[in-house]
Amino acid sequence: MADGVQFAGLIILAGGQSRRMGRDKALLPLAGEIMVRRVIRRLSLRGKWAIMVSSNQPEKFPGLEVPVVPDQLLEGGPLAGIHACLETSPCEWNLVTACDLPFVSGEVAQQLLALAGSGTWDVVVPVAGNRAHPLFGVYSRRCRRQLEVFLKGGGRRVTDFLKRAKTRYVSGEFPDKIFFNMNRPEDYYRAIAMEKEIQDGG
Hints:
Helix content: 25-40%
Function: Transfers a GMP moiety from GTP to Mo-molybdopterin (Mo-MPT) cofactor (Moco or molybdenum cofactor) to form Mo-molybdopterin guanine dinucleotide (Mo-MGD) cofactor.
GO molecular function, one term: nucleotidyltransferase activity
Order of helices and strands: EEEHEEHEHEEEHHEH
Strand content: 15-25%
Domain MobA-like NTP transferase: 11-160
Mean pLDDT: 93
Distance between the termini: 30 Å
EC number: 2.7.7.77
Pfam families: NTP_transf_3
Number of helices: 6
């Protein structure tokens, strides 16, 4: 695990409505495995994690063999999932990732954890292409109370919460594809093509 962080939580956000996709993104198959398992496998290649899946429908994940954590504060979007899992996590530092990122990088996760462990930040968020990616970032367990206050006050936007938290934004030369996410069917088909290119050595 990253320097200064021996063991971290891994929070996989899998509770979205998937309205634009029209199918549950956490269960989409890609290269022979559903997305939630793919994310776990790719990140588990680098580091040891206390894994949690954020969802209000645990019945969707039979045999997953990791805790499925329901929201404590309903209608709060991804922040409610982060909050509930931070309350559950045994770890001070937790990597949060959306379930629809087919090319997540364990190496980048370790880089973010190393930065988190070397400072006093509440959240560490990567920035690529002039865009922040808070749904592949590191969150400290200590920000869960601030999250609770924010959600109970009607806050919903992740970017608004980050303005209140002690957030470090990290720019860098991140590998291609790692922040590519699948919101619509065309994104899913593109991910299938990208995976085939990788498998073919492209």
